[in-house]
Amino acid sequence: MLPRWLGDQVMGTIVAAHAYVNNEVAYVAWDIDDKIDGCLGFEVVRVYLDDQGNVSKRPDGSEDRVTCAAWVAFKGQRNPHWLPQTTSLWPVQKLSWRDLTLRKRRNEMKRRPDEVRVRYEIRPLGDLKPGMPAAPDPTPQLVEINKRDEHGKPIKKLDGAYEKIAVKAYEGPPRPLGYLGPAVASNPVHVTRKRGQFESTFTNGILAAQWLRNVLLEDGVKQPNELIDMISNPENGIRKYLAGDVIPMLKEFMNAPGRFLVALYELEDKELLDLLLANKDKLRVILANTGKVGDAWDVRNHDARQALIDAGVEIHHRMFNNSSQIGHNKFVVHLPSDGADRSVFTGSTNWTATGLAGQSNNALIVRNDEIASVYVAYWERMLEDNATLEAPVEFDDGMPDNQQSKAFRHSNETPSIVPTDNGASIEAWFSPNMQSRKKGKATPPDLREVYRLMRRAEHAVLFLAFYPGQSGRDCIVGQAIDIGLKDQKLIVTGAVSSAQAMPNYVAGKKNDLDDEDDDTEAVSPHTFEEANVSIVRASRIDDRQLLADFGAEELTAKKVGAIIHDKVLVIDPLSDDCVVVLGSHNLGFKASYGNDENMLIVKGDRALAEAYAVHILDVYDHYRFRAVEAELKRQGKKGWSGFLNVDDSWQDGYVNRTKGALTRYFAAG
Fold first, then answer.
1. For residue 594, which of 377, 437, 426 has the smallest C-alpha distance?
2. Are 360 and 347 in contact (CB under 8 A)?
3. Is 209 helix (H, G, I), strand (E, B) or coil?
4. Which of 45, 288, 383, 553 gets the highest tally of CB atoms within 10 A of its CB?
5. Which residues pair with 86 in a beta bridge?
């Protein structure tokens, strides 16, 4: 990279920049060799490319460049209406950037297309001084917004339209900025779901977000069930926005000619139920039961189950009225009518409104006949095992606990390993695979292999998990921490949904049974930070910890349930021997001992590893800021001001290497 000068003084420079992408989000990381004096952050520009790698042209002949949007103002300024500016005006004060608007617009509930190629240009900015090239004019424009009454409710005119007022795009004195050096370009990336034999996608179900808060408050009132009603309606734009490509990808998969074997834990979503009913003559379905509500079982699946029965679908009812073992699968196998190669749809996404649009989840199609055949065999084994279980008479009646047979458990003890056409391999595991249905001390065989691969990590272990085990025990969380603390050069980065899954969680204790005031409260930290190990739990900005221009956020659609529902592990994503672990398996002992589960271990497919790594980084980075703020509040400490720094001290941790190990790893490429 070229050095940069300010007058005769040689300053630090950007020495590396690299971009990574899946079909939803791009992650860009860069590194500097020293402090850039006076740097107030970086401008980030998305540059669209044609198939030959040249900059694309707009219809008017100009180059197709988009300066990425920013919402956080400098100290002394305000963004009270949460209107987007650009990183030319409010630059990025760190060495990485998640391009969340690559597909998702923030000014309307429409998404940009995929199958595009982009690169990113990173350029340092500082206060404008003589001789510096000027950044775009920071003078705030006048924009129209809804006029609101003293209660925050939009005012309507007689014709029913909202009354508008003109306001400045932001408040406070403009801060003219200039460029401290030339832009540095990243590598080009292709925004796509398709990666060889794999097709991957991810939900956008992060609800603790400012844009969603503003949508819910658009009419001035946030109704109790407003969000769940929105994401349950197949025609709702917010639902489509949050679900991303999962529904279109599943519809494309199931609209193909042929037959389908389906194994589901939850089935409540109307749009997906209609998809099954539209293919009713082509289906064989194993549908497990959902948890107990009051005295009734299978409440969540009840209506969909009855609809399938009434439609004459071949349906098999599994693991009924069971609180300790569940049929946790969410997969579909396609059997083409012309005898072509079979394929399988799997991942973490439950077939519910919250699974599609209220949680972070992933979905994967594997177009590999051998792997699909392994899933077919597992489906048939479940069906055979079902014959040994007591069939429900009435679906909501109480019954003795069902459990999988020892023969079925034994059949899942060994994996199937299949090579792919690009030199990688796919290893398929199924559960339960231990003879005891009660979780013991012995490590299950699937997790033994996962742990072995984790111990071989050379650079990074990344994960997302719902609730694999309490306090990180008997699951990948504790294993990752143990490995990371023994090898402190290893980067361990992860996020979990449940407070109880945090490694530093301490359960509450009832001391004197007759004295409630004597109870010991649970300790529920939001973060775990030691060496290069960083684990956070999903958190939000709430009414008790408002900061600057940020408002209170949602966390779940129903006030309860999973936030991060992914079960994903990525090891050394930038290496040829990278590993991706995914499926329905919660990545803890409980799943292997007790549940019907499927888990794939993909070795050596870097494109897939990078796509899943970007998803992990997206979710982790979103919740990390919120978790850190929540943890500081929990400890009674002062948090971030909510504004950009007005000097260059924000670089210090990166320069002295006390922070930024994760960023440096990805910047190096």
1. 437
2. no
3. coil
4. 288
5. 69
- Residue 36: exposure state from Cβ atoms within 10 A (0-12, 13-18, ≥19): buried
Q: Looking at the structure, tell me whether residues 241 and 178 fall in a common domain.
A: no
Tokens found for residue 170: 């932001």
d(Cα 179, Cα 131) in Å, to the nearest integer? 10
586 in Cβ contact with 67 (< 8 Å): no
Determine, yes or no, domain membership for 229. Answer: yes
| Per-residue model confidence as pLDDT tens digits over 472-509 | 999 999 999 999 999 999 999 999 998 899 999 888 77
**Mean of pLDDT over the chain:** 90
My answer on whether 101 and 184 are in the same domain is yes
Distance CA 453, CA 450 (A): 5
* Residue bearing tokens 């594997």: 366
Q: Are residues 123 and 198 in the same domain?
A: no
What is the β-pairing status of strands 85-86 and 96-99? unpaired
SS3 content of the chain, % helix, strand, coil (to 5): 25, 30, 50
CATH number of the domain that residue 296 is part of: 3.30.870.10
Report the run of H or E that residue 631 belongs to, with start and end.
Answer: helix 606-634
∠ Cα 361 367 369 (to 5°): 130
Residues 349 and 470 in one domain: yes
Angle of helix 476-486 relative to helix 445-455, nearest 10 degrees, comes to: 20
Domain, as residue range, for 40: 5-139+174-190
Query: What is the domain count for the chain?
Result: 2
**Paired tokens of 324:** 């300790």
Residues in Cβ contact with 416 at an 8 Å cutoff, skipping those fewer than 6 apart = 370, 371, 374, 427, 428
Report the candidate in 466, 427, 429, 461 with the shortest Cα–Cα distance to residue 444: 429
Question: In terms of Cα–Cα distance, which of 608, 294, 284 is closest to 425?
Answer: 608
Give backbone dihedrals phi and psi of 519, rounded to 5 degrees, phi first: -70, 150
Burial class (CB in 10 A: 0-12, 13-18, 19+), 149: exposed
Please tell me the distance from the alpha carbon of residue 168 to that of residue 166, in angstroms, as a whole number: 7
Dist. CA 299–CA 302, nearest whole Å: 5
Phi, psi of 539 (to 5 degrees): -140, 165
Q: What is the pLDDT of residues 420-470, one digit of tens each?
A: 989 999 999 999 999 998 899 999 999 999 999 999 999 999 999 999 999
Alpha-helical runs (H) found in 391-456: 406-411, 445-455
* Residue 386 CB contacts under 8 Å (≥ 6 apart), including other chains: 286, 316, 317, 318
Residue 286 belongs to a domain: yes
What number of helices (H) and strands (E) belong to the chain? 15, 32
Q: What are the b/e assignments for 236-260, b being 16+ CB within 10 Å?
A: bebbbbbbbbbbebbeebbeeebeb
Helices marked H in 233-297 — which ranges? 237-243, 246-254, 270-278
User: What is the distance between the alpha carbons of residues 20 and 33, in angstroms, rounded to a whole number?
Assistant: 22
Residues contacting 81, CB < 8 A, separation 6+? 143, 145, 167
Residue 68 located in a structural domain: yes
Highest mean pLDDT range out of 195-209, 365-379, 384-398?
A: 365-379
Confidence category of residue 399, pLDDT binned at 50, 70, 90:
low
